[in-house]
Design brief:
This is Head-tail adaptor protein. By secondary structure, the chain is mainly beta. It has one domain: Thrombin, subunit H, CATH 2.40.10. The protein has no helices and 7 strands.
């Protein structure tokens, strides 16, 4: 188990009063099981992309509240959530935890 941090852009307004997402701030921490995900990068001429991706399992009797727009700090790297966080239920429908995938591709 390791600690992950959840970061979320805070609601604010621009100079015209329109709602925008401000700088991210830490909104919580969880103990989680973090597993690296295997990915295959398409190699392009003059490019060497590198993908960092993890699947995170967070156990708990209640949903975490993590949103698809959040950032997760894993092993010192702030990564965006990929897709909608998934609910982890047992065979009887009882909530076991949440499963999220985070990652980014550079290069």
């Amino acid at each position: 188990m390791e600690t992950i941090e959840v970061w979320r852009g805070q609601s604010t307004t621009d100079t015209d009063g329109n709602p925008i997402q401000g700088k991210p701030a830490r909104v919580g921490t969880f103990q989680a099981m973090v597993a690296p995900t295997s990915t295959t990068d398409q190699i392009e001429e003059n490019a060497s992309p590198q993908t960092t991706e993890y699947t995170i399992h967070i156990r708990g009797s209640q949903p975490t509240g993590i949103q698809a727009t959040d950032l997760i700090k894993v092993r010192g790297i702030l990564l965006p959530v990929k897709g909608k966080p998934q609910v982890w239920n047992n065979l009887h429908g009882r909530h076991i935890g949440d499963v999220i995938t985070v990652g980014e591709r550079e290069g």
